[in-house]
TrEMBL record:
Location, primary (coarse class): membrane
Keyword Transmembrane helix: yes
Keywords: Glycoprotein, Membrane, Transmembrane, Transmembrane helix
Protein name in the entry: Scavenger receptor class B, member 2a
Region ranges (Disordered): 469-507
Compartment(s) where it occurs, according to its Swiss-Prot or TrEMBL record: Membrane
GO molecular function, a single term: scavenger receptor activity
InterPro entries in UniProt: CD36_fam, LimpII
Organism from which the protein derives: Amphilophus citrinellus
Family assignment from sequence similarity: Belongs to the CD36 family.
GO cellular component, one term: lysosome
GO biological process, one term: protein targeting to lysosome
Any one Pfam family match given in the protein's UniProt record, by short name: CD36
Length: 507
């Protein structure tokens, strides 16, 4: 066997092995499976894991922007006119300290307990003005809360009405942004607190939230099942809420919005429990996006989350009573707000029934500015960008025993909306990109083997072609060729044929 034929055999065998192994690995997704197993092992809430420290102390800055609706025609509205508001903001704060406090492993390490502590620092350069100076005219929430609390008793309602007149507490109030956010002593609440010590004298939309937490959460670590990574087991010791009227409405499902399991699927729903809304919401895939070179899936709440009970029967449990059930896009959260007639929605009544925005002059819902969304890297589950947007409203309507409300029609009145935003920082983004590159290379290693097999196949074809060509040349060199000696010719009579002379007969 020649050296050339040996080379052909070696190349052929190598090509066959590479293609067989490569295609087998691709079909079996062996390396992809190994990489996914590695991710599932690394992304768990236990000491020493890749994500534990960043879960306890998230590095990207989170910004809280507050936008207020300043009422410009209070007197006209109280006389029956359409209310007019103009949006003022943002007043921006950074979560200067955002960390998990009192982190403790429980249930033999299967779960972890923690408190979400938040502290806010005002950012003047990202705000429209000074919150200590700027004033907003808005709904007097303490007054409406007290009025709704006593509306079932004629005598109590009459007494509160007299108090309000004596101290000048009206249906609307003008306060600084600082007061509305972080609290002020309300004269009506102070009067009520004298006989009801459980009532707070101070009111503020963010009162007691600076440097505080929402109570203890217990989370699954994800060690036993990666799908449980960051999933809430209990909140404040409860597996279920008690505010609503059905098991579905009271369910505590999903994460707290800070952690999501790896290997996300476009077809799944992600669930987030939000203490501010006193309920669990869900999000669905909308589109593919990219943030700082990181591919991500955008998840956003569909209209069904805040749909009316007619459009989504599951939401019937969120009705305070059968008579106190609002329409699509709004949720009355008074059961978890001490009876105050507070209503939650998306900003400017985005995704709500058009009648709510139409009832207020100055509302202009826009997807770009008012949509809530999460951009999650599907491989790691890391949040690369998020905007959580919610609006605080107050339900205004006639209240028996309070003559000043007699001209009012039922109105969901906007007070302010919040935009909580975060974008992954550059250092974290670089780490995620590196991890994704490694994951891609490992997952695609079988394709590299197939590619090498393809190259060897091309080499084999070239060698076989050369060998065939050389063989053809050799055969041409050894083939039969006709003799070219010319037959003898007679110079006179043409062709000369030489015959053997006859023997003499005589002889």
């Amino acid at each position: 066997m020649t050296r050339r034929s040996c080379t052909v055999y070696v190349v052929g065998i190598t090509c066959a092995v590479l293609l067989a192994v490569g295609i087998g690995l691709v079909v079996g997704q062996v390396f992809r499976t190994l990489m996914h197993k590695r991710l599932k092992k690394e992304i768990v809430l236990v000491e020493g894991s890749r994500v534990f420290e960043s879960w306890k102390k998230p590095p990207p800055p989170v910004y809280m922007q507050y936008f207020f609706f300043n009422v410009t025609n209070v007197n006209e509205f109280l006389q029956g006119a359409k209310p007019e508001v103009n949006q003022i903001g943002p007043y921006t704060y950074r979560w200067e300290y955002r960390y998990k406090d009192n982190v403790t492993m429980v249930e033999n390490g299967r779960m972890v307990a923690a408190y979400n502590t938040k502290s806010f620092v005002f950012l003047r350069e990202k705000s429209v003005g000074d919150p200590a100076v700027d004033s907003i005219t808005t709904v007097n929430i303490p007054a409406w809360a007290v009025m709704n609390k006593v509306k079932g008793s004629f005598w109590r309602a009459s007494m509160v009405s007299i108090w309000m007149n004596s101290i000048g507490s009206g249906l609307f109030t003008t306060r600084t942004v600082d007061e509305l956010l972080w609290g002020y002593e309300d004269p009506l609440l102070a009067r009520v607190a004298a006989s009801s010590p459980e009532v707070e004298k101070v009111f503020g939309l963010m009162y007691k939230k600076n440097g505080s937490n929402d109570g203890e959460f217990i989370y699954h670590t994800g060690e036993q099942n990666y799908m449980d990574y960051g999933r809430i087991e209990t909140w404040q010791g409860q597996r279920q809420l008690t505010f609503w009227n059905s098991n579905y409405s009271n369910s505590i499902v999903g994460s707290d919005g800070s952690a999501f399991h790896p290997l996300l699927n476009k077809n799944e729903r992600i669930y987030i429990f939000t203490p501010d809304l006193c309920r669990t919401i869900y999000m669905e895939f909308e589109k593919d996006v990219e943030v700082k070179g990181i591919p991500a899936y955008r998840f956003t709440p569909p209209p069904s989350v805040l749909a009316s009970k007619e459009e989504n029967p599951d939401n019937e449990g969120f009705c305070v009573t059968p008579k106190e059930c609002l329409g699509t896009g709004v949720l009355k959260v008074s059961p978890c707000r001490k009876g105050a007639p507070v209503v939650a929605s998306f900003p400017h009544f985005y995704l709500a029934d058009g009648k709510y925005a139409a009832a207020i002059e100055g509302m202009s819902p826009e997807r770009t500015h008012h949509q809530t969304f999460l951009d999650l890297n599907p491989t790691t589950g890391v949040i690369v960008r998020a905007h959580k947007r919610a609006q605080v409203n107050v339900l205004l309507q006639r209240v028996p025993g309070f003559p000043t409300t007699r001209t009012l029609n039922e109105t969901v009145f906007p007070v302010m909306f919040i935009n909580e935003s975060v974008v992954i920082d550059d250092e974290s983004a670089a780490r995620v990109r590196k991890l994704l590159l490694i994951s891609t290379m490992v997952s695609n290693f079988p394709l590299i083997i197939v590619g090498l097999g393809g190259i060897m196949l091309i080499v084999l074809v070239i060698l076989l072609a050369k060998a065939r060509k050389q063989k053809s040349s050799a055969e041409d060199d050894t083939a039969y060729s006709p003799v070219n000696d010319k037959e003898k010719e007679d110079p006179q009579n043409g062709t000369y044929i030489d015959l053997t002379p006859k023997a003499d007969v005589q002889a």
